[in-house]
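Convert to structure. Protein one:
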Amino acid sequence: MCVRCTQTGFSKHGPRFSHRLCESVRSGSKVRQVTLLNVGADFPLPERRWRAFATLVQCLDAGTTPVFDPDPEMLKLAQRTASRLQRRRHSCSGNRAVVAEPVATVLLHSLHHPPTRSVGGERVALAALHSLRFSDILRGRGFSQDEASLATALVFARMLHPSSEREASRWLNQASSACELLGCDTQTLPAQNSL
């Protein structure tokens, strides 16, 4: 949304102007501005505050709260404008036959999903260890591929979830995707009961 000042005619005192709340709309490959509401010839805000006003009206119209607290004068004007805009939309939709859109209901208590695993930190840690050639160092020390993957997974646990060995094993088995990223078998990790 934005505020535009448009010349509407001439009088004996000079040109007449009107301020309008506009919105850019794409139609095909072209973009055009559509007037949403005429906010009057005597719009009280100076031009440098029009953008902030239009953003505030857009927030109020969408039902969201603005990030910064606006000054009371602008807030009062924006509330009146958003209210007028909603009334205008309601009256315009009353003149046309409104097609009811199908409504999909979701029973929130019936949603089930498998346990999720974290992957973001693991990807960053994996990239860091690859840049250090960590697995090559381990392989050079005589570790097999499986042992190197397991050692890397344990390093992930220390980096991303510092805790006891028992908690690290639980985290790798249940909450992290480190083993999937490294291609190591979670069965090779020490059992929680044995720690």
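Protein two, convert as well:
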Amino acid sequence: MGSAATSITALVTGGGGFLGQAIVRRLLARGDHVHTLQRGDYPELAALGAVNHSGDLTNYDAVAAATEGCDVVFHTAAKVGVWGRYRDFFRCNVVGTRNVLAACRQHQVRRMVYTSSPSVVFDGGDGHQVNESAPYSKHFLSNYPKTKAMAESEVLSANDAGLRTVALRPHLIWGPGDRHLVPRIVNRARSGQLRLIGRGDNLVDITFIDNAVDAHLAAADRLLVPGACAGKAYFISDGDPRPLRELIHRILAAAQLPPVDRSLSPRVAYVLAGILEFIHASLRLETEPVITRFVVQELATSHWFDLTAARHDLSYVPQVEFEEGMRRLHKWLCATSDNELPTPT
């Protein structure tokens, strides 16, 4: 897969996103034909050779048009965030995924790699070396993990001889070009809003962007082998969990910012988040609360994952280690004009 003799045609939904663009660039670099589907226009991808389709996941005709003629679909597109209306998350993450599955059936696409999230099993408590036997959470404090769990379940249930599917759960993708994790931390530090929740000694896994791309391409390759990984979900990370305080401070250092020296107790933060959520819901505010209960739980607990299944079934081995990733992040931040980062979407 990917050589001149065996080049494929792939569709990357969300091709304009952080992960989507990285997958697109990697596929093009190795000689594959790439189609993308996203709501925006990305001429830089077209300049590299990608065929861009503009459309919404909830528009089946747009999804089907982008899927036609493809051998594999990388479904990375999703509505992300910790706050928002359930119907908006459901339409994009669940209805949109159903459209992708249906389009794969219509055009006889044989493989689909779905980008899920470890938050589908997050129950609010500590998670140490969590593996794929962990069940979906029974109580979600955010509509994002709730709808991602629904979509992942449907993707895996759709697996059969005609369409082989696999779900990957990369945790906190980071690196040059990041539009979520790094901008959120850096922008909040600059505005004086960044706080640690608790001592910050809880262990957390992260996933460098190149490692996340490696996992997606490896999963697509392994789907060619019957029974290798089809119908299964896999946790993906750098395999190097570190205290949250260290992770935050290293990201701030990469942006040439001082470490955060203020914190809130988890109990106080959770109560405050509940009050803010109540105010936003009561007033029907479109803006995201400064902090939510889901975020408090994520920041106050350990969550790192057992990569045994991914290593065995996908031959996944993280290639970019933490220090090298931080070096690349620092270089990117220094090259960014005045260190201006996008507002997290």
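The first helix runs from residue 18 to 29. The CA atoms of residues 326 and 337 lie 19 Å apart.
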